[in-house]
Amino acid sequence: MHYHQGLFDIMFYIVPVIIGIVFVFVIAFIISPKLRGRMMAREIKAMKHMMDAGKEDLKDIASTGGEVMADSAQRILKENMDTLEDIGARAGKIQAETVRRVLDENADAIGGTFEKTVDMAAPSVKKMVSAVAEGIKEGMEEAQVFCKSCGAKIDADSEFCKHCGAKQ
Ligand SMILES: [Zn+2]
To answer: Is there a contact between 58 and 51 (Cβ–Cβ < 8 Å)?
Structure first.
């Protein structure tokens, strides 16, 4: 009664076997350059033979196969667009969650590093600020002149002295 072997059940047994065979071949390929060379030579020979034997057939097969493959790829994409979008959205969510978790778990370390960076930067920032302040002060001082009448320090652009009222 439970022998309802659908396509899935068959695939369930065949796929691991195929994967096993491929795996063995891959290992053998990696281990033995000699085997690799021999297999490649044979493959090339077979391919050449095949191409010589049926150039036109091959062309037909290639174009038909290509069309079928493109069609089915398009169909699969269209049919599974929702699922694919879902997978994309889920992957994005998982990524965001992972980033947030990592940030949460390492908040102390990140905060400490930030504080240390600020501490390290503080003296140079202070120095920079005082240099800028010094520059501004110097610039303002440069913009001052002495009154022609009383000799008091007044702004260079002032029309009258603020101390004696003399016209400049
Ligand atoms: Zn004056």
So the answer is: yes
- Protein residues placing their CB within 5 Å of the ion ligand 1: 147, 149-150, 152, 161, 163-164, 166
Q: pLDDT value at position 54?
A: 72
The answer to whether the CB of 136 falls within 8 A of the CB of 128 is no
Taking only the tens place, the pLDDT of each residue in 77-103 is 888 778 888 888 888 888 888 888 888
Number of Cβ within 10 Å of residue 68's Cβ equals 10
**H/E run at residue 89:** helix 81-105
Can you name the residues that pair with 145 across neighbouring β-strands? 154
**Within a 10 A sphere around the Cβ of 36, how many other Cβ atoms?**
13
| CA dihedral for 141, 142, 146, 147, sign (positive or negative) | negative
- Give me ligand 1 centre to Cα 162, in Å: 7
Q: Cα(133) to centroid of ligand 1, in Å?
A: 28
Is 162:154 a contact under the CB 8 Å cutoff?
yes
How far is the C-alpha of 34 from the C-alpha of 121, rounded, in Å? 62
Owner of token pair 């269209």 = 78
